[in-house]
Design goal:
alpha/beta, Rossmann fold, 9 helices, 7 strands, binds S-adenosylmethionine
């Protein structure tokens, strides 16, 4: 089976033989592919809504993985099985991911790895994971259909992050690649035009200017 580039990059960093729950799984293609490609033996496709869960069930039947991919109707981690040790959150905003985890923090007791692809708000995700004593062990910037996505993998372990690391990602900063440079060049362009439009009196203006100078500093190191 062929996954989208975004989902394939997530699948590629799932630790082999982990037991994965894909939260907000929708079609279920990620947990199905992990089993079909023998990366893991057992996965869960979790969704809050019946319609996407039925789609996941149809796909589970289609790929004949009913004895290893289990669909579960659940609001976030509410009905998370105890044997899960890895969570995946993809295609959701940071606020939704943070709300889901905050609501059921005790469910993290067996979770050693969390992989996230927040559609927006990577800064907040990094800050939140650090506050929960997870550390970022891998990051990647993906470009798919003209949209940049951040993929962030965390493992249990303490990690303090600077503002710069929360903004760009501590792993990204040590492994700068072309997608990272292009993404931040694009953001810079949008921010420059935004800052010009913000009135001097607005408290937002300084925040954007500070962020712009951090972006300039990083992009400069990629040219030097
Ligand atoms: C945009 S889809 C993302 C699907 C897939 N993860 C991907 O990346 O392609 C978001 C899914 O999250 C589900 N969802 C939203 N809030 C949820 C929650 N609190 N618990 C479980 N699933 C949720 C939605 O029903 C929807 O199917």
């Amino acid at each position: 089976m062929i996954l989208s580039l975004r989902l394939q990059n997530i699948a590629d960093i799932v630790s082999s033989d982990s037991i994965v729950a894909d939260i907000g799984s929708d079609h279920g293609l990620l947990p199905i592919s992990l089993v079909v490609n023998k990366r893991t033996k057992k996965t869960y496709a979790i969704d809050i809504a019946i319609k996407p869960l039925n789609q996941a069930k149809d796909n589970i039947m289609k790929y004949d993985v009913g004895n290893s991919v289990y669909p579960i109707l659940s609001d976030g981690l509410e009905n998370l099985p105890d044997d899960v040790n890895t969570l995946v959150f993809s295609g959701m905003g940071s606020k939704t991911i943070i709300n889901i985890i905050s609501k059921d923090i005790s469910k993290l007791k067996n979770i050693s790895e969390i992989i996230m692809e927040p559609n927006i708000g990577s800064y907040d995700i990094r800050e939140f994971m650090s506050s929960l004593n997870y550390s970022i062990v891998f990051e990647k910037t993906i470009l798919e259909n003209d949209v940049y996505y951040d993929i962030i993998k965390c493992s249990l372990g303490k990690q303090e992050l600077t503002t710069r690391e929360k903004l760009f990602g501590p792993y990204n900063l040590k492994h700068i690649d072309i997608n990272f440079i292009n993404k931040w060049t694009l953001i810079r362009k949008k921010m420059v035009s935004l800052v010009r439009k913000i009135p001097e009196s607005s408290p937002q203006k300084n925040k954007f200017i500070e962020e712009l100078s951090l972006i300039d500093e990083i992009l400069k190191t990629t040219i030097d």
